């Protein structure tokens, strides 16, 4: 998993954490430095949220215990989480350094777009999870998002068109045409609104009649949009054919297996159906090689799938080669051992409400210093 995915996964799912404890020190606003590059204390909080989330995702993790009350991959849980937070910090610094070494820059338009997205998304997360009270402020969030952008830029300059290790279109197309399939699907109405305006399940006979009608029209080669306009004539807003055109990947866990089976086992032009707990669909297999646009729209995903593991290993190599300065006082203040966590497996309430911290007031005070972080990054 690359740095961006690690950070994003941690930020979205870090609701089981509250705050880090503080201790006295002359300067605890930063945790790691490498020349002009800095991991502030607020950023370290965010990276520690990621480390904790990754601990929860480990095979064999006991959700009835905190990660600090069990062994993780054969070692003390606290050490595992602390080591992972340090690893993420070093990866951050390595990406910052490599980005500048390659002479890459962030254009003004991209910076504005990132800032706007970060501000909107952070506001949403803060309302739900109280990030500001945890010491993980907006400026820290922005820096981690910018680092993601830089990582993606390095990736594209390495494997993208004209890159030092460019992956040619022919190689990507081979993967696209063998591991992906294209289908047009129509969701069959399984409920209807009665005279009282209430939703009720339709009779199975009516559902079967719809499936038969839609199947015949697709087999006859009727225009997709015309079929949708007729079938959804009672809807205030009719769907467009493009909305129901899908490209699916082998093994995609988010796509119903029955649809995957049809997509990869049927012939081009064949019509079929998928009926399971997710719903009822009538499907038609399309020719994925017919439109160059389909490949173009999926090129970046293909490249990421092909090279993300290799690129992640490169970042590991870069991060292992650096020796950043550590601020032991700040690291002690924000040690994961100070997180007060209730095991998620013992409560049916949300993970955010399942934790308490006696250090929240001091950590909230620490967050007030984040407004000055931009001067040190």
Automatic annotation (TrEMBL):
Biased composition (Low complexity): 347-358, 366-377
PROSITE patterns recorded: PROKAR_LIPOPROTEIN
Coiled-coil spans in chain: none
Signal peptide stretch: 1-21
Keywords of the record: Signal
Highest rank taxon of the organism: Bacteria
Residue ranges of the region described as Disordered: 321-377
Keyword Lyase assigned: no
Bias (Basic and acidic residues) ranges: 321-331
Protein name: Foldase protein PrsA
Organism: Fumia xinanensis
């Amino acid at each position: 998993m690359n740095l961006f995915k690690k950070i994003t996964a941690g930020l979205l799912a870090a609701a089981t954490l509250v705050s880090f404890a503080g201790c006295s020190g002359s300067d605890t606003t930063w945790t790691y430095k490498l020349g002009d590059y800095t991991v502030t204390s607020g950023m370290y909080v965010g990276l520690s949220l990621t480390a904790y989330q990754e601990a929860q995702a480990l095979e064999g993790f006991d959700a009835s215990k905190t990660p600090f009350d069990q062994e993780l991959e054969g070692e003390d849980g606290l050490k595992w989480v602390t080591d992972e937070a340090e690893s993420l910090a070093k990866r951050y610094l390595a990406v910052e350094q490599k980005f500048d070494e390659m002479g890459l820059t962030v254009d003004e338009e991209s910076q504005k777009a990132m800032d706007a997205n970060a501000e909107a998304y952070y506001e949403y997360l803060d309302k739900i999870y109280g990030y500001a009270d945890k010491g993980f402020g907006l400026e820290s969030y922005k820096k981690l998002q910018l680092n993601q952008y830089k990582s993606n830029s390095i990736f594209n300059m390495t494997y993208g068109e004209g890159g030092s290790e460019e992956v040619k279109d022919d190689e990507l197309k081979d993967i696209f045409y063998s591991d992906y399939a294209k289908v047009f699907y129509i969701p069959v109405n399984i409920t209807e609104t009665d005279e009282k305006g209430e939703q009720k399940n339709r009779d199975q006979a009516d559902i079967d009649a719809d499936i038969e009608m839609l199947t015949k029209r697709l087999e006859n080669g009727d225009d997709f949009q015309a079929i949708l306009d007729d079938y959804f004539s009672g809807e205030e807003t009719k769907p467009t054919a493009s909305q129901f055109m899908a490209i699916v990947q082998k093994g995609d866990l988010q796509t119903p297996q029955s649809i995957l089976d049809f997509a990869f086992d049927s012939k081009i032009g064949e019509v079929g159906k998928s009926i399971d707990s997710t719903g009822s669909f009538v499907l038609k297999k399309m020719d994925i090689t017919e439109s160059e646009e389909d490949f173009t729209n999926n090129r970046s995903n293909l490249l990421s799938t092909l090279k993300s593991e290799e690129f992640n290993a490169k970042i590991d190599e870069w991060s292992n080669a650096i020796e950043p300065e550590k601020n032991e006082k700040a690291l002690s203040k924000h040690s994961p051992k100070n997180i007060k966590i209730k095991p998620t497996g013992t409560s049916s309430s949300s993970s955010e409400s399942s934790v308490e911290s006696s250090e929240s007031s001091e950590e909230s005070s620490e967050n007030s210093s984040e407004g000055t972080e931009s001067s040190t990054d």
